[in-house]
Amino acid sequence: MAVADSEGGVRGRWVVFLSPMVWVLLVALAAGTWVWAGSFLRSAEEEGMVQRTEVAADFIRSYMTGIAVRQREDASKALADRTVDVGRLEIFGAGLGYTSMIVLDDRGRALAIWPPRPELIGQDLTGSQPHVRVALMQDRIAVSNVFTSAVVPNQSLTAIAVPYATPHGQRIFSGGFIVADSPLGNYLREAIAPPGGYAYLVDRFGDVVATTRNPGPEVIALSRFAPQLAAALRRAPGGDYHRAGQDWYYTSAQVWPDSWKLVIVAPHRRLYAEPDEEHRRFGIVLLVSALCGLVAAAVITYIAHRRWQEQQKILRQDARLRAFHAELELFAASISHDLRTPLTAMSASAEVLVEHYPGQMSTEEAVVFVQKIRSSAARMGDLITALLAFSQLQRGQIDLQPVDMATLTDQVWAKLARHRGERDIRFERAGLPPCQGDSELLRQALATLLDNAIESTRDRPVAHIEVGYRAGPEGFTTYRVHDDGTGFDAEQLKEVFTPFQRLHRTGTYQSVGMGLSLVQRIVTRHGGHIWVESAPGGGTTFFFTLPFT
Questions:
Q1: Where, by residue number, does the polypeptide cross the bilayer (predicted)?
Q2: Dihedral sign computed on CA atoms, order 42, 45, 47, 50
């Protein structure tokens, strides 16, 4: 039964702590989810920016390819005569949005230039125009790096060179334009650049082709215009860098192989503004949920704890009832024997008197039998008194108050002076801690234990009795009463606390063997436990536990 109660208590404690543990696990899971959600939302924003950059790079490439294809088709019709009229070249280029134009033959020599530069006609320009050389030699569309125009003062241009066939041989048309002033510039500013951020078109040398910022008319390197971004691009095509006291995220995509690159940058505070706001709202929802969960866990824990307390109370009551039932059975058996003994003696003596007095018994003999009857009646009275005391202790309420055990022990020892007589008894009392209990009942228990110690040491010329204590178990103090008397053997120890078992022949209740039974009942009523250690000739020590204040 004790094992089952212990297992039930352990299960009950687990039930009490289960709800807080589940809440803690859920909060930890929610916190992990919240952290993951913040990272996921930011990663999603970064991935979206990467995708937008790649789509924009594809659009720019498609846009310029479309211009070049149109440029080739129109040039093969409008610029196919043996000689190219400058005025016609101007009209042709203006329709395509070019600022400057050059027509070259299959050797790279200038046939016509706009704005007019007569001194360059007939010269080989492939050395100063690398993109023209690529278009001529590889017969494909070529896009130049950004360069300072020789025909348009104070402007940096970008050119598209396309080869086209004529009846007079292969020719190259190269049209230069200012990207920032073209539809591409508007696209960078209005469609590509993120809020609070910038977009850059950079050529293969790292010079700025166009940007949403104002680089001026000169050719300028990105390393001078945005040095932190240029350094970051050398490390990786995308990532983070720090500029102007804040963190920035950048991504890049190739527009032309080994040529233009589109770069987009955005500050963290603007790029992550929306995901951070969603993350914050999500955090508020989780926090409110956690608080609601805490309240629910607290209520469930309280209910479970109260239920567990009630179960423990029922288990303790059940244990007490079982112990009391066993005690009653033993008590009833003892009563049936001990009450019957004096009654039998009284009945036998009365029968002798009836049969033999008068006539066959002298007065002196009759007096002996009368004294036996009186002795048995007195014995019966002692038994009844002890039974009443035990019954009252079992039913009565105890008044729990702080009790000074040291003072109470001194008072009890002083009142036992008549029992000590002139004997040499060395009494030692430690600094006993106070306890929570009924002072009158504890006085009775101490008197019985000390009286028992006095009787146990009666054969000692110099007796030693000691009252001490030690800590524990939890919530209790263990007190002890030790004497160096005769002690008990193993058989006696089994019946020390059995009612009507006399260990000594003097004392108040010991005369009928109820003293230690009452002590056990007093300690038990206080929620404590009492036991004894003894050996013949080795003294006796009674231990009992009481709740501390």
A1: 20-41, 282-304
A2: negative
Closest residue by Cα to residue 282 from 458, 41, 492: 41
Query: Between 509 and 86, where is the model more confident?
Result: 86
Tell me the C-alpha distance between 411 and 39, whole Å.
Answer: 75
Lowest-confidence region among 121-130, 252-261, 465-474, 495-504: 495-504
- HEC sequence for 65-125: HHHHHHHHHHHHHHCCCCCCCHHHHHHHHHHHCCCEEEEECCCCEEEEEECCCHHHCCCEC
Cα–Cα distance for residue pair 179/548, rounded to 1 Å: 91
User: pTM value?
Assistant: 0.52
Structure tokens at 375: 């002795």
200, two tokens: 């850059």
User: Residue holding tokens 């043996």?
Assistant: 82
Provide the 8-state DSSP code for 188.
Answer: I
Peptide bond into 115 cis (omega under 30): yes
Cα 162 to Cα 140, 372, 469: the distances in Å are: 6, 147, 108
For the stretch 514-518, contacts whose Cβ atoms lie closer than 8 Å and that sit 24 or more positions apart, written own/partner, are 514/386, 514/389, 514/390, 515/448, 515/451, 515/452, 516/448, 516/452, 517/390, 518/389, 518/390, 518/393, 518/444, 518/445, 518/448
Q: Minimal CA–CA distance to 228: which of 245, 242, 214, 212?
A: 242
Parallel/antiparallel/unpaired status of strands 147-148 and 238-243: unpaired
